[in-house]
Specification:
Strand order of the largest sheet: 24-23-22-27-28-25-26
Structural class: mainly beta
Number of domains: 4
Distance between the termini: 85 Å
Mean pLDDT: 84
Oligomer: single chain
Order of helices and strands: EEEEHHEEEEEEEEEEEEEEEEEEEEEEEE
Shape: elongated
Low-confidence stretches: 49-68
Number of strands: 28
Length: 391
């Protein structure tokens, strides 16, 4: 094989230079396909092999390289595991070659042929049944855990298969639609091209925009390509107190505190209806305030309609006046909270100031006064009333 100019060279797990690789060394090679040719992109020298000229993937040898080099295997086991998914290109006496697809930061896809040792301790299964190396065939799809060049465990999956999971995210990535599913306690990612058929229960002509976070998704997959999506959603109603609102061009989100104290975030469907319960008029997300009660109607886990009610929570801050700036309408309050520290609070001309039942003006405020400030709304930095407790 020709060696690429930027090929990497290793002795065990340590990187070296090409001059360290000598004739008759036992090596593992990693191939990359460019056009119709295979090129070496990585060479790893195996130290201490009992048969120096033995190629770990030589079909004429019966003794696996894994048995010849226990120390090398141990070095691989010390390397952090990573997940490799691809198509088996070849099966040898002591390992397999896998075609793996990689996507770089520009979205360009490349195929690399990677060689992995299968030792006597490697566990490869299909339909929960353990396989021998001889049971693996060219063209099989394998999802494996590898450490260095050692395959520690793998699962052979069908070329045509169906998987079901819960949609946790949908996004654009490198110009393509991508979905992330919660599948067998793991998050898996699939690209969805324009030719994929999308069907959803209750909809006659479903599209990408009809998929909702929380939908139960079933994918028909042929090799690594999704051919069809079947989605099933559900509707529900939740209530709570608004804790946070995030407005985004991608997808806005709202966080509420439920009656049981649990806090949960819900994404909003683009164009979600938002109504004020007080006026029965449509409002925008910019009109929503923290601390207001809210009723949300969900399509799976996404908000389809938002009904905003009364202000149920008001925020107060207690502390000592550290600084006052009447011209810029703010006061700095030194709190005893490690989390809050010193907080700057806006106070307009309409702020009400009291000492007990006596009404004062904001000009009566002095540094080092102990005050309690009630905000205009929950989460706001605008003072509504200031009560002087001491001086």
């Amino acid at each position: 094989y020709p060696v690429k100019e930027d090929a990497k060279f290793y002795i065990g797990s340590k990187e070296t230079n090409k001059e360290s690789i000598k004739k008759d060394d036992t090596v593992l090679i990693q191939l990359i396909k460019e056009g119709n040719n295979d090129y070496i992109s990585k060479i790893t020298k195996i130290e201490g092999a009992s048969t120096p000229t033995q190629d770990s993937f030589d079909e004429d040898k019966n003794t696996p390289a894994t048995n010849a080099n226990t120390s090398y295997l141990q070095e691989n086991l010390n390397i952090s595991p990573r997940k490799v998914e691809g198509v088996v290109k070849a099966v040898k006496d002591s390992g397999i070659e896998v075609i793996v697809k990689y996507v770089n930061h520009k979205g360009e896809i490349s195929e690399e042929i990677e060689s992995y040792i299968v030792s006597s301790n490697s566990v490869i299964t299909k339909n929960n049944k353990e396989l021998e190396l001889a049971d693996i065939n060219k063209g099989d799809i394998i999802v494996s855990e590898v450490r260095g060049n050692l395959l520690t465990k793998g699962e052979i999956i069908e070329s045509q298969r169906e998987i079901s999971g819960i949609l946790v995210e949908k996004k654009r990535k490198n110009g393509s639609n991508v979905i992330l599913l919660d599948y067998k306690n793991d998050t898996v990612e699939y690209s969805i091209n324009s030719s994929v058929s999308i069907k959803k229960k209750g909809l006659e002509d479903a599209t990408w925009n009809d998929l909702r976070i929380g939908d139960k998704i079933t994918l028909d997959i042929e090799y690594e390509k999704v051919t069809e999506i079947w989605a099933e959603g559900y509707t529900s109603r939740v209530t709570g107190i608004i804790q946070e609102v995030v407005i985004s061009a991608n997808q806005s989100k709202i966080t509420i505190e439920h009656e049981d104290g649990k806090i949960k975030t819900y994404p909003l469907i683009y164009g979600a209806k938002i109504v004020s319960k007080l006026t029965n008029e449509n409002i925008s997300l910019y009109d929503v305030r923290l601390g207001q009660e809210v009723t949300m109607y969900l399509d799976s886990m996404e908000v389809e309609e938002l009904v905003v009610g009364y202000q149920r929570k008001l925020s107060t801050v207690q502390g000592y006046i550290e600084n006052i700036n009447f011209s810029k309408d703010y006061v700095d309050i030194r709190t005893e909270s490690d989390f809050m520290g010193t907080k700057r609070i806006r106070m307009g001309m309409d702020v009400e100031v009291f000492r007990g039942n006596k009404r004062l003006s904001r000009r009566d405020l002095k540094e080092d006064m102990l005050v309690v400030i009630t905000m205009k709304s929950y989460g706001s930095d605008q003072a509504d009333t200031i009560n002087i407790l001491g001086y």
